[in-house]
Amino acid sequence: MKNKMENIVNYKSNHKFLDIPYELREFMKNDTYSLLIKGKPGSGKTTLSLSILRSLKVKNNFFYISTRSSPKQLVEHYPWLQKFTKDTKDIDNEEVSPNLSSFEDARLDEPESLFERVTNQLMDVKNPMIIIDSWDSVASLMDREARLNNERVLQTWRERAQAKLIFTSEESVESSLESIVDGVLELNYQYMDEIRLRSLFLRKLRGIPIKRSLYFFSLKNRILRCFDSYDPREFKINKLEKIPKEKNYSKQILQTGYDDLDKYLGSALPHNGLVTVEKDNVLSNDIVLLFLNDLLYNFARKHYNLLLDSTIRDKLILEYKSNIHNYSKLFASVQLYGSHEIRMQGQLKQKDGFYKHISKTVAKLEGKGKTVCMVESNSLDSFISTYSDLEDYCKFIKKKFELSFLILNSNDNVEKYYSAADIQLKFILNCGTLFFKCSIPASALFGVHVVNSMPQIQLYHVL
C-alpha cells in the first residue's frame, strides 16, 4: 500500500494535466481487473473508455465492443483513433488490417452472441483488454437471474485469462455489477453560469488508496483530460536562467499568448480595451503575478511597450525575483519611465495629478510603438469613488493605451469596475480545483496548471 501511494506522488510530480487520474492509472497496473464506468448520457463514458486505451498506449491486444456505434462512426467521432488502424477508409473491412477487428460492432447482437464474442477472446488471446460499451444494451435483454449469472461468468473467465474487462453503463441506481467488479467510476456534470463542468468520482478501486475521490475534466478534442488539485506552492515564479528561444513577431498581434483563451476570445483582444483580472480571496497572490509575468513575456516578443504599476513592478522584480530583466526588448522601453517616474501609489492622490503623470510618461514613448498598461485597482481607489470618476478613467486609458489590464485587488467594492470591462477574467477555486473563468464577453472556463517553461501557466478549455 505504501509503495502504491509513493507511485501516485511520483506520478503527480511529473504530470499536471492528467489524461486519467493518478489512482486510476495505478489501479490499471494490475495484471487483471474489472472496471465499471457509469454515468448519465453525455457524461463522457465512451470518451473515457477510449482515452484509457490512449493513455495506456494500448494499440493491440484489445477489443472494443460497441452496442451503440459502428467502428467507422467511432473513428469519425474520435479522429485520433486512426492510430489504431492502417486505413480508416476501409475500417469496416476486417481483412484490411489485423487491428481493425479490435473495434467490433455489436449493435444487432443478442446476449448469447455477444457473450460468445467475449469468451472467444478470453480463451484465444493472452491478457486482452476488453471494453463493452455499453453493458445496458445487453443486460436489458436478460432477466435478473440470467444477468447475475452471466456477470459472474464473465468475471470468472476474466480472472482465468488474466484480462482487463471494462463496462460502461447508464444505470443511475446501484446495480448487481457494482458489487462484483474491482473498480467503479461515476461520471457526472453540473452547470456553472451556463458552463458544463464535468466530474469523475472514484467510487471504488480495489487495492488502491484513493487520495482524491473527485476530479474535474474536459473533453476538448474528444480526449479526456483531468485537472489536478490546487497547490499554492506551484505558483512561485521560476527564475529561469535563460529565456526560451521563441520567435519574435514582426507584426504586433494583440493576444494574451494563451492559445485556448485567445481562440475563445477571437483573433485579437479589443483595441483600446480594458481587461479586469481578479482571484478568489483564498487563492495565493502568486497566481495573478505569474499570470502577469506570462503576459510580460508575450507582449515583449510582440514589441509592445509596457507600463507597469509600481507595486506590480516591485513585486515581480524584487519580491518574487522575476526573470523579466531578461526581456531586453520590453525593459528597454520600461527604463524610459522607470522607478523614479511611476511611483504613483502614495504620491498621486488627486485624479488630475494621476492623469498628468501618465500623459507625461506616454508622451516619452511617442513614436516607439504601442503601449500596454497594467495597474492595480488599489492604486486608483484614492480618486475613483463615483461612476463618473470611473467613466473618466476608462475614457482616459482607452485613449492612451492599446490595451489596459486592471488587477482588482481592492479591499472592497471591486464590482464597480465590472461595468467598464471589455473582458472580465477571474481565478476561482471549486472543490479544490483551480479554474480560470471568463465572464465577459461570454462565460468560459479553463483548467489551470504550471509548467517550467514560458508561459508558465497553461490554460485548457473546459468542454
Alpha carbon gap, first and last residue: 35 Å
Please provide the count of β strands: 17
The CATH H-level superfamily of the largest domain is P-loop containing nucleotide triphosphate hydrolases
Shape: elongated
Side-by-side strand order of the widest sheet: 3-2-4-5-1-6-7-8-9
* Oligomeric status: single chain
Major sheet attributes: 9 strands, mixed
Mean pLDDT over all positions:
80
Quickly give the CATH architecture of the largest domain. 3-Layer(aba) Sandwich
Helix percentage range: 25-40%
| Rg measurement, Å | 27 Å
Category from helices, strands and their pairing: alpha/beta
Number of helices: 14
> How many independent structural domains?
2
| Low-pLDDT sequence parts | 4-15, 87-100, 328-348
What is this entry, summarized?
With 463 residues, the protein is an alpha/beta fold. 31% of the residues lie in helices and 22% in strands. It has a nine-stranded mixed sheet with strand order 3-2-4-5-1-6-7-8-9.
Could you explain the architecture of this structure?
The chain has 463 residues and is α/β, with parallel strands linked by helices. It folds into two domains: 2-228, Rossmann fold (3-Layer(aba) Sandwich); 233-461, Rossmann fold (3-Layer(aba) Sandwich), CATH 3.40.50.300. It has 14 helices and 17 strands. It has a nine-stranded mixed beta sheet. It has an eight-stranded mixed beta sheet with strand order 11-12-13-10-14-15-16-17, with helices on both faces. Strand 15 and strand 16 (444-450) form a beta hairpin. Helix 5 (111-124) runs parallel beside helix 7 (144-160). The chain is elongated, with a radius of gyration of 27 Å. 40% of the residues are buried. The model is unreliable at 4-15, 87-100 and 328-348 (pLDDT under 50).
